[in-house]
Amino acid sequence: MRIYTKTGDLGQTSVIGGRVRKDDAQVEAYGTIDELNSFVGQAASLLQDDRFKDLREQLAVVGQELFDCGSDLAYTPAKQQAYKTHAAMTERLELWIDRLEANNPPLERFILPGGSPPAAALHVCRTVCRRAERRVVALSDTAEVNPEVLKYLNRLSDYFFSAARAANLKLRVDDVEYVRGARVFSDDKNEQEPGE
């Protein structure tokens, strides 16, 4: 099988149910999810130590689920059969976040990406995930999208934040706090969380 097809040489690509320009909002959305999945693979490659077995296993699941999200977005609405992304996937992310945060030190200030290489890689995943979410929101203005994809991406960025902090904790490396800011988080449950 040849890798190159030459069918996209003039700036169009195939989606399930037709062809669109390569800069179409649909392609931007699932293409950014594909980009995110590459960064997830890179982050997982930095977590080979046995201390990170749980995070590696979780990232392997995330990689599969991001492919599901991209698949859901690759269909034109008229050709969609059954969506692959469903609420249980987001609920699992919430369980993972809760477990990670139970061990992470309390947040007092905003934190910057970094600390350890694995944490920095997971923060890259977080920010690319936010961009993917924005691309899907933009697509939803002009096309029908599976709403579970938006929920999943929103929660996934929170997962990456918690996982980055957990990676630093396992390596005994401090999170990098934003030192020019005051304490903004407390135990008050009415305060807004760092995610959205």
TrEMBL record:
Q: What is its EC number?
A: 2.5.1.17
Keywords tagged on the record: Transferase
The source's domain of life comes to Bacteria
Looking at its record, which EC class is this enzyme? transferase
Protein name per Swiss-Prot or TrEMBL: Cob(I)yrinic acid a,c-diamide adenosyltransferase
